[in-house]
Design goal:
Mean pLDDT: 96
Low-confidence stretches: none
Oligomer: single chain
Radius of gyration: 17 Å
Number of helices: 0
Shape: globular
Largest sheet: 13 strands, parallel
Strand content: over 45%
Helix content: under 10%
Order of helices and strands: EEEEEEEEEEEEEEEEEEEEEEEEEE
Length: 209
């Protein structure tokens, strides 16, 4: 069964569990606020064809098996990603983001992330890579150069188009395909691997930490 959800702004003050059937947003540019945990069971699905945001703005939330168009993580506490995760909206415009980790929020990825659009980690936010390998095929990754990153995992930049790293702190980085631009100073604690791609530093640096 398919359940159509109408409304550009919907608030869920508790948990969202989709156990059977498909929840389908019918309003473009929606913003759904979720205060509790979010779980997609084996028989459930969320249709992310329409463009919109799911905003996780509770405290200490767990997201199990999420497939989204765009996602915002806000408010204090840790937002833990478990199971599969896919954020699919992609734009070549820097200020059009697919994932936003807002100030004071911590995003903990205990399973690999597939990020197909632009990523923003605010100046007082934290991304904990969970010691996992995450794939980024968007255009712009933007974050503070010397804070806001925890873990010993890897970010794989493998978009088959130009990709721009506007700052950020990382452990390991793999770069493949096309040209990668360092558009602002970045910091690494691990290894940088290049394969079948060009790296243009412009006038910026990647520093060890």
């Amino acid at each position: 069964a398919t359940f159509m959800l109408s409304g550009s702004s919907v608030n869920f003050n508790g948990n969202v569990d989709i156990n059977q059937g498909t929840l389908w947003p019918s309003t473009a540019s929606y913003v759904y606020s979720v205060k509790g945990n979010y779980t997609i069971a084996a028989g459930g699905a969320f249709n992310n064809v329409e463009t919109g945001f799911i905003k996780f703005d509770g405290v200490n939330q767990t997201i199990n098996n999420g497939k989204f168009s765009r996602v915002r993580f806000s408010n204090e506490g840790t937002k833990t990603i478990a199971g599969t995760f896919d954020a699919t909206y992609n734009s070549s415009t820097r200020t059009t983001r697919t994932i936003i980790v807002e100030d004071n929020a911590t995003l903990l990825a205990t399973s690999p992330l597939t990020i197909k659009g632009n990523m923003l980690i605010d100046g007082n936010a934290t991304f904990n890579d969970g010691n996992q390998q995450h794939t980024f095929t968007g255009y712009y990754w933007e974050a503070p150069k010397d804070k806001g990153y925890v873990g010993s995992g890897k970010i794989v930049f493998n978009g088959n188009h130009a990709q721009y790293i506007w700052g950020g702190k990382f452990h390991d980085i793999d770069m493949t395909l096309n040209t990668k631009y360092i558009s602002a100073d970045a910091t690494m604690t691990g290894n940088l691997t290049l394969e079948a791609c060009n790296l243009d530093m412009l006038t910026n640096h990647i520093s060890g930490d």
